[in-house]
Amino acid sequence: MKPLLSHLFLTFLFFILHPIVTVSSPDNDSSTTATNAIDFIRTSCSATLYPDLCYTSLSGYANAIQQDPARLARTAIGVSLSKTRHMAVYVSNLSREADYGADPRASAALHDCFSNMGDAVDEIRGSLKQMRQLVAPGSESFRFQMGNVQTWMSAALTDEDTCTDGFEDVAEGPMKTDVCQRTGKVKKFTSNALALVNSYAEKGTN
After folding, report:
1. Which residues 6+ apart lie within 8 Å of 63 measured at CB?
2. Alpha-carbon torsion (77, 81, 84, 86), positive or negative
3. From CA 175, how far away is CA 183, in angstroms rounded?
4. DSSP assignment, residue 135?
5. Is 80 helix (H, G, I), strand (E, B) or coil?
6. Could you tell me which Pfam families the record lists for this protein (predicted)?
7. Is residue 77 helix, strand or coil?
């Protein structure tokens, strides 16, 4: 009886424990995939001017990005678009308030900055649309499309630079400091996105 009971007990343990092993395996695979995606983002961000900001702004999208450089660049452009759009709205609100202020140079700088940010939003939006329509890497059409994205993202960065340049003749004060600091951070997101676009374009055309 004892050998039989021992055999039945071992069989019982097998059927109890086997499902646990089966269920835990996908979790392990998922964890490995997420870790690989995180490592991919961190490594890719090292090629940007602001790697820490790049990593923190994109690591939350690791499940969507996986280890795909096109998705990485597209996501970075999307983040840049969101930041630039919010900045445009912020400057628009400030410019309306400045219309009633006593400093015409500040008012003019804000209106110009809003125009620059609006142009940047259009250029980044165009870049994102182009990235969503990309053909297979290596083709002439791919090079043309990526050339468009590089041109538009570079133009957006120039527009953001122009915004802060317009405040050079404005007297120092909280408003000037605030706008320049906020715009400076937006430029970092756009710069990082452009760097990732350039990296993907280089890999896709080689």
Report:
1. 34, 37
2. negative
3. 12
4. -
5. helix
6. PMEI
7. helix
Tokens representing 106 are 């500040």
Q: What number of CA atoms fall less than 13 Å from residue 172's CA on the CB side?
A: 0
Q: Are 159 and 88 in contact (CB under 8 A)?
A: no
Residue 14: the pLDDT is 45
Domains and CATH numbers, the chain: 51-205 (1.20.140.40)
SS (H, E, C) 96-119: HHHCCCCCHHHHHHHHHHHHHHHH
Please give the Cα distance from 100 to 112 (Å, whole number): 16
Burial readout 145-166 (b: 16 or more C-beta within 10 A, e: otherwise) = bbeebbebbbbbbbbbbbbbeb
Stated pTM of the model: 0.83
Q: Name which of 34, 52, 35 is nearest 192 in CA terms.
A: 52
Q: What does the pLDDT average to over 89-110?
A: 86
Residue 31 class from Cβ within 10 Å (0-12 exposed, 13-18 middle, 19+ buried)?
Answer: exposed
Amino acid at site 130: Q
Q: pLDDT for 24-41, tens place per residue?
A: 344 555 567 778 999 999
Does residue 90 contact residue 143 with C-beta atoms inside 8 Å? no
Which of 129, 94, 121, 123 shows the shortest CA–CA distance to 109?
94
Position 117 pLDDT exceeds 80: yes
Q: Which whole-number Å values give the CA distances from 178 to 7, 91, 99, in the listed order? A: 76, 10, 18
Residue 32: both structure tokens together:
């490995």
